[in-house]
Design brief:
single chain; about 550 residues; mainly alpha; Methane Monooxygenase Hydroxylase, Chain G, domain 1; 23 helices; about 80% helix; elongated
Length: about 550
């Protein structure tokens, strides 16, 4: 029983080590993801290379593929680009198997201890991030060490050898690889566990030939996280996920055909490292993905076109909502999710500003089309605000850097203020509707004053929006000075309005609209100040 518990503990430590190392690498590479993905242009080779680099950086083909799918869903990548990236991710993920093939089990506990020291006793954030990677690395190899001892005690190798001998059907081996990897959601982990088993076997008792179809099946099963992530995504996201599955299946089919025609492929791999079965498995894993990617790269555009046909557009208008975020981003690296949420927040503010600008124009230059557009856009901004909130709350509970945590906190605080700006735009077009319905008029002086404060309120919003975009400290002073001017205008124009009422130069009903208009525009400037102060106080 102890040996069984030891085996389970070793497996758990191994899987957790891979997870910790991957997340540590993701946090260390924080901020690089966007620049790397921007390299994924229409050039197929560059997109494949992007997938390789991204996956080597974060050691998770699943995370890379999920990122690519989410970027397709938001329109930042084309379907073809995402398929190329996923081909590259298949190559990049083989690095983990190459690392595991190094026989450093003896010093694994020391690596683990160093990781603990760096993460728990060093205050420098950069060192802590490196420490998390070292800790994951140590956990991974300590898990391998523990698994190896348990495997020897339980004599599992004879059981496995018997299984391989009794059930030599390649289809069963392939199916086992698919199912096992789909369950643990990582080809790196499943191939790594295969390496551990092989390393503990006596020389000559197992060979690479026994594991070939399992490894191929493990590569197919690796697309399980991608398919699962696409369920809650857009039609484009589902196309990308199905494309990933098709590429994996075609790659497996092509390699099996090559293997059947040229069975000497495994002999070539074995000659590269004759006495190291773990390295043979790692090299075969790499060779399989290299050949599959090279063969499939030229036909990927055709696969993209086929996907567009088998999963066509329904023809309905796209529902209003967020552009840059989707729930599947919460599965991938936190730094990407935070960056995309910031883009969505900036875009939401831009929409609110544009809506206010359109509402002001519609008030002074009546247009039924513009009024309808303001009301429609206000509804969209409400939806985006709600979706952003639902996205940011679970994101805030993830393991974030101090800067990322601050950014999420800022966004949670300001999105409601941004939404209120659009509410004021809605109020302004409703004022226009009341004016038209009741046939109200304003004095020339009153109209000029409303124009002046409207212009100044827009300037306040513009400075605040630019501060959110760029973090330029000079915008803070612009916001404060402009808001002071709005306040002074409101006070002065209200006094002027009272004077006009006393001279009966303004109708009382028109006066109500006038004062409400000044109030909404002044509150817009207040919202801009609140947004600016939240960002400034947090030190973003």
């Amino acid at each position: 029983m102890f040996s069984i518990f030891l085996l389970l503990g070793g497996i758990g430590m191994f899987l957790y080590g891979i997870d910790v190392m991957s997340k540590g690498l993701q946090r260390l590479a924080s901020g690089k993801f966007r620049s790397i993905l921007e390299k994924a242009t229409g050039n197929g080779f560059m997109a494949v290379l992007t997938g390789v680099v991204l996956t080597v950086l974060i050691q998770s083909s699943g995370a890379s593929s999920i990122m690519a799918i989410s970027f397709v869903g938001s329109g930042l990548l084309s379907l073809l680009q995402s398929l190329y990236i996923m081909l590259g991710a298949n190559i990049g993920t083989t690095v983990t198997a190459q690392i595991i093939a190094f026989d450093i089990e003896v010093i694994a506990p020391l690596i683990f201890f160093i990781g603990v020291i760096l993460t728990n006793f060093i205050k420098n954030d950069a060192v802590k991030r490196v420490g998390v990677i070292v800790l994951g690395f140590g956990l991974l190899f300590t898990g391998i060490y523990i698994m190896g001892d348990a495997i020897s005690e339980l004599d599992l190798l004879s059981v496995i050898s018997g299984f391989l001998g009794t059930y030599s059907n390649p289809a069963l081996h392939l199916l086992f690889g698919v199912v096992f990897t789909a369950l643990i959601q990582s080809s790196s982990a499943s191939v790594g566990m295969l390496q551990v088993l092989a390393m503990r076997a006596a020389v000559g008792t197992v060979s690479l030939d026994s594991f070939v179809y399992m490894i191929i099946g493990m590569n197919i099963g690796a697309c399980a996280p991608t398919v699962l992530a696409s369920f809650s995504g857009s039609r484009d996201s589902r196309r990308a996920a199905v494309g990933s599955l098709i590429l994996k299946a075609l790659g497996a089919g092509i390699f099996i055909a090559v293997f059947l025609i040229f069975p000497g492929v495994t002999d070539l791999v074995k000659r590269l490292s004759p006495s190291d079965i773990a390295r043979q498995i790692a090299n075969f894993h790499l060779l399989f993905n290299l050949i599959a990617s090279l063969v499939l790269c030229p036909v990927t555009p055709m696969i993209s076109r086929v996907l567009m046909r088998i999963i066509p557009e329904k023809g309905e208008e796209k529902a209003p909502g967020p552009i840059f975020i989707s729930s599947d981003l919460l599965i991938g690296p936190s730094s990407v999710a935070v960056a995309r949420a910031h883009e969505e927040t900036v875009h939401m503010y831009e929409q609110a500003y544009a809506n206010m600008e359109m509402a002001i124009h519609a008030f002074f230059h009546p247009s039924e089309d513009e009024i309808k557009q303001v009301l429609a856009d206000e509804n969209t901004i409400d939806i985006v605000c709600n979706e952003l909130s639902k996205f940011l709350i679970p994101l805030s509970t993830k393991q974030l850097t101090s800067r990322e945590s601050t950014q999420v906190s800022i966004m949670l605080q300001i999105i409601t203020d941004i939404e209120r700006i659009s509410d004021h735009a809605e109020n302004i077009v409703q004022f226009r509707q009341t004016v038209d319905e009741e046939g109200l008029t304003f004095s020339e002086a009153g109209t000029g004053e409303m124009r002046a404060i409207a212009l100044q309120s827009l300037k306040t919003l513009d400075a605040s929006l630019n501060y959110l975009r760029t973090g330029d400290a000079s915008d803070v002073n612009r916001v404060m000075r402009s808001e002071d001017m709005v306040n002074n205008m409101q006070a002065e124009f209200m006094d002027n309005h009272v004077t006009r009422l006393q001279r009966t130069a303004c109708a009382p009903r028109s006066g109500v609209i006038f004062t409400d208009m000044l109030s909404d525009l002044e509150r817009c400037a207040d919202e801009a100040v609140r947004i600016t102060q939240v960002i400034q106080t947090a030190g973003a």
